[in-house]
Amino acid sequence: METDYQDADSDMDCSDNDNECFDVYDYYNVVDDNDMEQIDPSQTDPEHFAYDCLTEVEVEQLLNESVASLSNSLQITPSLAKVLLHGHCWSVPNIVMKYRENASNLLISSKIKPPVTPTPIPCSRYETCPVCVTQHMSEKFYNLSCAHMFCKDCWIMHFEVQINQGISTAISCMAKDCEVLAPEDFVLKHLIKPNLREKYQQFTFQDHVKSHPQLRFCPGPNCQVVIRSNEAKAKRAVCSQCKTAFCFKCGMDYHAPTDCQIIKKWLTKCADDSETANYISAHTKDCPKCNICIEKNGGCNHMQCYHCKHDFCWMCLGDWKSHGSEYYECSRYKENPNIAHESVHAQAREALKKYLHYYERWENHSKSLKLEAETLDKLRLKINQKVMANLGTWIDWQYLFVAANLLAKCRYTLQYTYPYAYFMEPGPRKELFEYQQAQLEAEIENLSWKIERAETTDRGELENQMDIAEKRRTTLLKDFLDV
Q: Catalytic annotation on 146?
């Protein structure tokens, strides 16, 4: 497993213009180096996930072991074993059990017909191919287990066309309505061009990995790493090569506590309705006290008007002084209890209003993550100036970078609570979730406010706020992270 906090010296090598030193998706593996107790993370961390990062060679070896095991158990060819494994999630015990119960049914379900006695070849030395309608010598005809005979040239053309279309393990017989699959050795036997052989083997490897429940390709660009885990859970995996973080179960960006199906529905809805939301939700708002136009230039939602110094919430425009006790009302959407009795147009407006409520907060936290990365760049510049002025060392200021990473970690989780809440049914569980969501949001904004004013923030106070925010986040995930 990776470790999440970077070493203390890592930021010392960062220049003022190096934006790569703060990656909002590179903060999840939090480890307390001062904690000498050996604690089982699977019992304490709701996001704990055991996995390995494998190379292509290691994956090939893993797949070949399964092929050899099944081939020896059933006394079948490795190519046939690959077809069976690919169609049955690479479960050797399951295939062996089904094969012993009814070998014919298993083969048919895998689109492989049981071996048949070939039709006797007539005395004539020539046969007509049903595809090209050309006569060839009998020895130039080949067939799969379905016994459909075609000439070698047609098989070659068939395989070349299929492979160029990206098809490999799904290549079937050329006969009409015949779904019998061509095993690997039969295909390679008819591929002459080296580049097509290489392409076919590459495609089959990809298909085998995709069909294996314990394997996932890293979604990073041009990355060849394969992640392996014994359990296909919706947990965060990080590639050891390109550092791409993603959900192991669906391959998308990590989205806890929202599950894979819900986040797909949410992203689809956002793609359809985001323009409407962007039109309604502007980037600037008026100060609720002096009405001067204010642009949000930081990640914190605790805003202070530069003109009248009024403190208010960016999301609901409420007075921040009383906001601590009312934050639950800010993050919670208030359902209209009489909406079922309203007209169709009224229900449509209510549905849009509900969506905009959650979308605005989802998008706001996404923007805040980017703004806080910019804030950290400014903070790094200030700290560099202090170090040059002998006002402490880089080591003395590392706690601010740790705090910024933790803030991004908490805000990222909070961002994905809004799709979760949007699709939740009203009831006690949703009320509990919204309460914990509001508590987390309040602690995040307090932490963000303190980090943005780090020069005047006491270190002990900041570290205490970090501890509170992380506990709020962990508690929410323990109660609502369903995998």
A: no
From the options 1.20.120.1750, 3.40.47.10, 3.40.50.1970, 1.10.510.10, give the CATH code of 260-480.
1.20.120.1750
Measured between alpha carbons, how far is 367 from 200 in angstroms, rounded to an integer?
43
The mean-pLDDT minimum among 49-58, 282-291, 377-386 falls in: 282-291
Domain 58-228, CATH number (from 1.10.10.10, 3.30.40.10, 3.90.1170.20, 3.40.50.720): 3.30.40.10
Q: Which of 400, 441, 396, 394 is nearest to 417 (CA)?
A: 441
pTM recorded for the entire structure: 0.72
- Rounded Cα distance between 148 and 258, Å, is 50
What 3-state class would DSSP assign to 40?
A: coil
Q: Where are the extended beta strands (E) located within 78-157?
A: 126-128, 135-137, 141-143, 149-151
Q: Give pLDDT tens digits for 128-183.
A: 899 898 888 888 899 988 889 999 999 999 999 999 999 999 999 999 888 899 99
Q: How far apart are alpha carbons 207 and 167 in whole angstroms?
A: 9
Question: Catalytic one among 300, 308, 313, 316?
Answer: 300
Please name which of 449, 401, 400, 451 lies closest in space to residue 301, comparing C-alpha atoms: 449
Residue with tokens 């076919």: 200
Evaluate the omega torsion of the peptide bond into residue 257 and state whether it is cis, within 30 degrees of 0: yes
pLDDT on residue 38: 52
Write the pLDDT tens digit of every residue in 97-122. 888 877 777 777 777 766 554 444 45
